[in-house]
Design goal:
InterPro entries: DNA-binding_VF530-like (IPR018668), SAP_dom_sf (IPR036361). This protein is mainly alpha-helical and 80 residues long. It is built from 6 helices and no strands.
Length: 80
Amino acid sequence: METHYFVSMEEQKNNPLHGKTLEYIITQLSEHYGWAELGYLLRFNCFVKDPSVKSSLKFLRKEQWARTQVEQLYIDTFSK
């Protein structure tokens, strides 16, 4: 039996990631911190070795644990 979870519009308004693509999040973080600082903060090769939005998207789409850390950094940085 499948269980479906629905998120209300009210809950989405309070979600700082609502409407933000992963590409947007990476771009905002890289512009704010720079690739070197991102690599220092999160220690992901996609931010250290030949950093780019494209390589970051490829890695973060495969590794949910890493994506979660990037999303949390975005929230901590821009939701104040």
